[in-house]
Structures are given as structure tokens and as C-alpha cells.
Give the backbone structure.
Amino acid sequence: MTTPKFDQAFWEQLWAKTLRERADVVAGRPPNARLMAETASLPVGRALDAGCGHGAETLWLAAHGWQVTAVDFSATALAQGRAMSDAAGPDIAGRISWVEDDLAAWMPEPGQYDLVVCLYVHVAGSVEDMVRRMASGVAPGGTLFLAGYRADDPRSDADAARGNQVQVSVEAAVAALDAGEWEWVVAEERPRVVAGSGVDAVIRARRRA
Ligand SMILES: C[S@@+](CC[C@H](N)C(=O)[O-])C[C@H]1O[C@@H](n2cnc3c(N)ncnc32)[C@H](O)[C@@H]1O
């Protein structure tokens, strides 16, 4: 099996194919249940959705009053997100800034976001560096919410297909952040709903004020 590189060209092609063949499924996909459960009660403010894809979570945050910066390096995914936010009306669309950029180098404005979200993004370099970069955007008292996927069986096709790229893990997130500066609210692996379909690393941390 050839292992894909999860680079911009890969994602751009995948988004173009997915939207061509299953636009209705994409448009109907609900926002991430873990994000909704963990952040619904937070006071709204500025949010960053890093690796936003077509923006299901971005739209949900904006609909709940967050001012959202949504970053992805797939222009096709961002165009879909923009179209969906326009369709949702000017209140929601007006609360979202769509940014096409590469998270491998892109830096959030330091300490400016009350919530930084990064869900299921493959990391080509160091996961700990990525976690620290995302965390640098969180304002004092704000929240960092990360999720990463891991197949149950490390020998499975799903894991093999990932090649040398990984998603965030609990160990890497805990190692990346200074316990004096961050309070862990959630840092654990949670199984997916369908048995045997893998686990999510779920990380929710609050930056001490
Ligand atoms: C598995 S999808 C997850 C999308 C969304 N966060 C979600 O939970 O549905 C990963 C997304 O991250 C984006 N992505 C991956 N690596 C990236 C990078 N280095 N810079 C910007 N976006 C990236 C991809 O284009 C894709 O939209």
C-alpha cells in the first residue's frame, strides 16, 4: 500500500472528490459532538478553528455567538464553508473569517482567542510543537480543545494509511504544555460510538488567568 502524504495537494483533491460525490452528506454532517459537549457552556468570545475543513464546527460556534477565525489550507473546503455560512445568513457569516493558510507555519495571534479548537489534523512535524503553537493563541482564562484519532489496532489499514503522520495524542499534549500555566479539564482517550472503530484523544485545557 502506498502511504499518502497528508499535504495540501492530498487534502485539496480529497475535498474536491468528496464534495463532487457527496456534497449532501458533507453539508448535513453535524458538528463534532465532543466539541459541543465540552464547550457549549463557555462564555462566547473569539474562537479559532484550526484545520476547520468545510466548517461544520465553525458554523456551530458562530451560530452560538462566537467570532470565529477558521483556518485550513484547502481552498475547496473553505469555499464550501463560505457558501454554507452565506446560506446561514449575514449574522453567522459576519462572525466568521475564513483564512487559507498552512498550520505547519501559521501562528495564531498570541493570547487573543478565548477558545482554540483543532480537531483531527494530521501533523507532519512534531505534535508537541503543533500543540504549543495552537496553545499560544489562547487568552488567559481561555480554553484549548484538541482531538486526535487513533485506530484501536495499530496494525490496521487505517493506521498504516497514516504513514509517518500522526494526530494529537494525550501524551503529546500533556508533554507540550506547562502544568503551571495550564489546568487540565479533560485529557483522556474516549472510544468512538461504534465499537472497534478506534478512539479519540480528547484534550480540554484552560489557560490559567
Ligand atoms: C480530517 S479533516 C478535519 C476537519 C475538521 N476539523 C473536522 O473535525 O471535521 C483535517 C483538515 O485539516 C486540514 N489540514 C490538514 N493539515 C493542514 C495544515 N498543515 N494546514 C492547514 N490545514 C490543514 C485539511 O485540509 C482538512 O480540512
Notes: The beta strands are 46-50, 67-72, 96-100, 113-119, 138-150, 182-191, 199-207. Residues 11, 32, 51-53, 72-74, 77, 102-104, 119-122 surround S-adenosylmethionine (CB under 6 Å).
